[in-house]
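Q: How do we represent a protein-ligand complex in a form that can be generated token by token?
A: Start from the inputs.
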Amino acid sequence: MSEIKTSRVKTQELEPGMTIIAYSGFHSKYHSLDDKSCKFLQHNFKKSKASVIRNNEKREIPVELLKPADKLLRLYAFPSELKKLLTVNEKLINALKARGFLEFDVTNEALEKDEQKELQDAISLVKQASMSTKEKEEHYKKAKENAEKFVYELKANITTRSKTSKAIENIMDDARKGKISYAGINDYVDEITRNSSAEAISAIVSLKQSDQTYDHCVDVGVIFQSSYFKIIEKFGKKGIFETKNKALLAAFLHDFGKSKIPKDILDSTVRFERESEEMKLMESHPDFGADILSGMDMPDSIINMAHFHHVKQDTTMNSCYPKGVDYGKVIYESRLLSIIDAYQALVGRRKYKKSWNPPAAIRYIDALAGVEFDMEAWENFLNVVGLFPKGSLVELNDHSVGFVMSTPRQDLKRPQVAIVRNSGGEDLTHHSLIDLELEQDMSIINDLDIEETFGQDALNVFSNIQIV
Ligand SMILES: [Fe+2]
Ligand SMILES: [Fe+2]
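Then emit the structure tokens for the protein with fe (ii) ion bound:
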């Protein structure tokens, strides 16, 4: 792939015929954004990317995630609908001057279609919006196949999830008796990476009961594996784990230290007092885990994940343990795992607590990102699961109700939705699939609680989805 030749110019050097690739110099008012400038940028640079300094670190984020106090360095990866902000003419030059945009990366060359991935994504998005009937039919045919595959895989993987959970319980029981080995779960690690779908099992977390120890480990494992490799692919990140098996095993074992905790404490559904002996013991599980895994000669990365998955970015927080850890020692994988661990704990359906809707959990963690959770890991995770993770139940603006069936490619708010209840409140036997990235007049207005909406029947309603 050839590089596009660009040069850096100031506003007064802009000439008609140039194409702006990035906005890269700003008036001092953008050096620390306020609420008003965030809203202005989010409105005018929708779906672009921003490079900012946040908490003394440089970050590349979607414009939608800009926050007050961010220092703006660069705006780039503009979608095609913003073409008018990129094609230099007299009118644009005047507007840029007035707005305090001072420097730009520009090119005189016509862009080759395949030269910039973001631009190409944007081109395909616009193409979809202006698709011919035949193209739209083809698009929906493919989307329908993917949705059907997702339903099929989810159903097929329910047994895999419960068998894997049992295997984890067995190795932890064995460890409690002094027989320490992880061989018992190797078959399931293999089974999931070879024949099953980690992503489909991930979606079960909001649809099916999960206990707080063993199902939790399975759910965290599969969510970690599927999001981790998507992040590597999407962001070109260099991950420590080369194979799906290793990533899955590492995440399955993150709470292995709980095998040193008596079962009655582990399975207790009452919340222990902060300073109680039971709580202290529970909070030792990362230390126990690191000890056991070191004794098994596990790689440092796996030990780091078991040891540091409850360490918060703000290490002074009460909920941060073990205490006194330098956050710099917490590897990216452990930071990502700690987000997924918190997500599963919120969304997981337990008999004794109300579970959160996945989108509500996403918003909750979003508010804590940068304080409790690492911002880079959070933004990566958000980008690959979306604001409405697959399997979420949502209400659309016509008051119909449906399950989220895909992760959006561009707009994190616009997944594909299988409608299971029409706007009149009737449950449907045959379901239509709506791609919100294509149907711009439709949108999600609410996320719904699956249990409140369908009672114990939620999994059945999902399993019986038949797209017409
Ligand atoms: Fe834990
Ligand atoms: Fe955990």
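The chain has three domains: 7-130, 156-385, 393-463. Residues 156-385 form a domain with the Hypothetical protein af1432 fold (CATH 1.10.3210.10).
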